[in-house]
Amino acid sequence: MLHLRVICPPERTGVVQAELVAEPGATHITVQPGIALAPAGDVVEADVTREAADQVLATLRDLGIDRSGGITLETIDTTLSEAADAAEKAVPGDPADAVVWEELITRTGEESRLTVTFQVFLTIACVLAAIGAITDSPVTVVGAMVLGPEFGALAAVAVGLVLRRRDLIHHGALALAAGFPVAMIITALATIAFDAIGLLPTGSLDQMDQVKFIYTVGPFSLIVALLAGSAGMLALTSARSAILVGVFISVTTVPSAAYTSVALIEQRFDEAWQAALQLVVNVLGIVVAAVAVLLLSPRARAWRGSGKRRVAG
């Protein structure tokens, strides 16, 4: 379940309380008059099932609570309550399958911004992937896949396309379009340094038997990208976020970007082209699959074109 906290003007408290009491998926409803200071008002709290969260949030927005007060939603790890069990049963569907769109918008918005942290993680991941390629170490390459933060930006682009949110598309596309080139340039400089100190002897890239998948483009490149994008978006929209680690390991965006830099420095232009193509195939495949998953959501249409809302963070 999700814990809902609402700060609202006193003149709206009665309406908010009535809406929550009438909602079958809401329980543990409490009202604390006049305790909120900034913004001033009453505090209304409730526990809400994931299946009912979208409707409750839409109602609160229609009442203008997001403008005159505040709405906070957070995940509850454990609930021991017959009332909570009854609320879960009263709302059709399974909590793990419910898409809470505001939660998804906020999460992808936060994880898609081009920040110093995003750039540092992406750069470290690319350099690590380059080392994995040079040493023919699949373990190192997998570590780079897990470390890469790019899936958040890809997910933001997908959510933005489905909901027609230009801000999400802009943030995600900027993070990818600026983040990868910077990381690749630094990886290229690192490769030159490895060459200069003898850590990249001539012919070492001829022995990449275990990590050739980085630049080998084929039908399975697209298939894996589509599957990873689908699984990743399902993990983001459900209560199964731990699955994202498996998604990261499936995606070869970071390794292919890193190897593009290495191959260019080593004048292996055919391999550089293939690695760059692998990167493009993965990016497009992930976004297309993520969009498809979101469009299959029963409430996707209700959110499309609903207007620009502020993204937290």
TrEMBL record:
Pfam families: DUF389
UniProt keyword annotations, A-Z: Membrane, Transmembrane, Transmembrane helix
Segments traversing the membrane: 114-135, 141-163, 175-201, 213-236, 243-265, 277-296
Record-given protein name: Membrane protein
Species whose genome carries this gene: Pseudonocardia asaccharolytica DSM 44247 = NBRC 16224
